[in-house]
Structure formats: structure tokens, C-alpha cells
Design brief:
Layout: H1 8-16, H2 21-40, H3 43-64, H4 72-108, H5 114-133, H6 136-146, H7 151-158, H8 162-186
Amino acid sequence: MEKPKTDAAETARDESRPQSFEALFAEHWTRVFRVLRRLVGDPVEAEDLALETFFRLFQRHPTVTMEADFNVGGWLHRVAVNLGLHSIRAFKRREYYEMESGRLHLDETPDAGPAEILAQKEERNLVRQILSQMNERQAQLLTMRYSGLSYKDIAEALNLSPTSIGPLLLRAEREFEKRYQALVKEEP
């Protein structure tokens, strides 16, 4: 079967039609990804940025690519480079703030010497010893509360009424204090 002949006007009309987004994606993906990979150094970040680049093209595709002098490849390259540079700046800012925060934390935290570390260890052992001697429910209440759980969470875990947690904790704290004082007085 013979192909139908196309005239020059029809060929010109086909060339002036915008490419489909899928065709543009297939044509430019590799180049955009490579540019971003070299720029940011991380293939996962480069892929995310390349997808963001094509998403921006997708948002503008029908109107932008219909312009006769629109350079899709150049536009994608420019957007990709801008996104890559923005990502690098954001990373450097984040890194700076994290390092600064860590430095401030170290400056504010006094260095614990061996004597202080030993004292903290002995204190933890003393607390464990007292908790092991206490009523099991009181020990659980204290452990849960000082682990950061709310009264409601403690009540649910121990199948108790939330309104009873406060008085029970108060009794447990008094019992702990009494045992602690007794143990400290025994030590030389």
C-alpha cells in the first residue's frame, strides 16, 4: 500500500505543533539529571530536583511550548541549575545551623569529669535499688511518669482511672523519698 503524500503546508503545521510532554520528558531527562547530579553530588537529590524541573515544565507546557521561539532545552537547563543551586544553599544553611546548635550545646554543657560520671552512675544504681524494693505498681508509676508519659497514658497502661494517677504518684514519690533518705543515712 502506498503512503499518502503530504504537502509542504501539512509538514509545516506538524512542525509547529508543540511536542507532547512525554516526548519532551524522554528527550531531555538524561541531560537534566546529569547536570543536577554533577551540581549536587547526590543521585537521589538530583532525581528529586529533576522531577521538580519537569513538574514546572508540565505546569507551563501547553502555553509555553507553543511559543515559536521557546527553547525547551535551555529553559529546562536554567530551571534545573537554579533548583540545584537553591538546594546547595539550603543544605549549607541547614548544615551551618546544625553545627552552630551543636557547638552552643557543647559550650553550655559542662564537661563531666570521671568523678561526676561515677557519682551519676552510683545515683542511678541507688535509684534502681530503691525502685526494686518498692511496691511494683508504685515503681511502675514513678518509672512511667519520669519517662515522660502523661497521666492519661499511665492510666491506660496500668488500667487505672486517670483521676487516681495524681494521688497514687504522690504516695509513690513520698515512699521513694522515705526509702532514699533511709539508704543515704546508712551509707558512710
